[in-house]
Amino acid sequence: LMPKIRVIPVLLLRDWGLEKSIAFRDPVYVGSPINAARVFNGRNVDELILLDIAATARGRGPQLDVVTQIAEEAFMPLTVGGGLRD
Questions:
Q1: End-to-end Cα distance, the chain
Q2: Tens of pLDDT along 22-39?
Q3: 1 CB neighbour count, 10 Å cutoff
Q4: By C-alpha distance, which of 6, 13, 59 is closest to 34?
């Protein structure tokens, strides 16, 4: 019996955009998180992880308005991180 492989993409959010970086240095804008959620829906991923990479540096929690809009498009479990203190 083969174990099931789970596909769990991680999206790095800054404000309303997705970024790609290596070791969080020199980030490059790569598109809309809402469009990415739509693409991942079509690919039947198992879960989606959203990390607000600017939240801690700005002293705030995740941007719930952005997370809400992504959640409306995502038909898979979501995990949200970044700026969480408790």
A1: 40
A2: 887 888 999 999 999 999
A3: 3
A4: 13
